[in-house]
Amino acid sequence: MHSVLNLLLYLHPSIQIQVYNNKKSINNSKHVTVNTAHSYLAIFSSALNKAVREGLIPANPVKMLDLKERPQPKEGDKEYLTIDELKRIAEAPCPSSELKTAFRFACFTGLRISGVRKMTNKDIYLSPDGKTRYIYTEMVKTGGTVSVPLSAEALRWLPTVEDDDALLFRVPQNASTLGRHLSQWMKAAKVDKHITFHGARHTFGTLMLTLGADIYTSSKLMGHSNVKVTEVYAKIVDQKRVDAINLMDNMFDKLQG
Known about the structure:
CATH architecture of the largest domain: Orthogonal Bundle
Strand order of the largest sheet: 1-2-3
Helix content: 40-55%
Structural class: mainly alpha
CATH topology of the largest domain: hpI Integrase, Chain A
Order of helices and strands: HHHHHHEEEHHHHHH
């Protein structure tokens, strides 16, 4: 048992494992939720992807599972920032200036926190015509690679570091500290939402579709293996449009009254 846990921790350091020796905990028959099971499988699959890359196993067995055999998460609210809220957090103070830089960069690139944390200058490439800089990085969660052109706004939040091997971003490693700093920052910006660092990725997804990017391009930019994952953001944008139109309901009745 412990050898398996050690292997998982080696392959995926972000895994947090709790071992319970209490018989009451071991015998507890409470089942995990579908969303939790989906998250566990994703982390386990990520560890197996790394094992494949390091030559420890020939293939990731999770990828052999049929879609119906995998726990499918229920669609929930994906907290994201609107364009107005992005402007407000830019002006509001954050307890960690490094967190502010990393989070805003993620909002304009769609990178997960794992991708932001491991970024170096070696992940950035210049297009053949010398006009566009790209991030070309491996997605920790899926094991695939993604190429994202850097917009002028993203470049504003890209730190300048001389050492090509040095990490570009310093995001708090402690989850409690990270959550607390984000909460204080959002409160200062008067953003009444529970925003996690992953909310930056949700922001990028909705922002792309709001600004007119097609769903297939958005899917590629986010590194989704299936466009159906990206459709969740399309539904959010569509609902925003419906809500906007609904603001006109009974408008003339009110004016006449």
